[in-house]
Amino acid sequence: MKANNRYTANAPSRAEIDQSQEPILLEFGTEWCGHCQGAQPLIASALAEHPNLRHLKIEDGPGRPLGRSFRVKLWPTLIFMRGGEEVDRLVRPGDATAIRQALGKINE
Question: What is the pTM of this model?
Fold first, then answer.
């Protein structure tokens, strides 16, 4: 599955995420966030090794229920899910290696 290029306001429900059995990378952030923009090359590099992974870029902010349900406080926040369970979380990742390691946990 091709990686998303833009954050979407059309987020799935928490129930949909929790019921999914496939590995998912949830990325919470906004288009205007400098930290989010800076992390994009790192995320793209790590995801290049996982072309079939479901990657959802979710626009976050006050009143956004999915981000609140995951207690997202800073952007970008990457949440790695497998079988409806959170396996790992990275907040403002600073290198692709940490992202690759977390991806390995959901693709085991």
Answer: 0.94
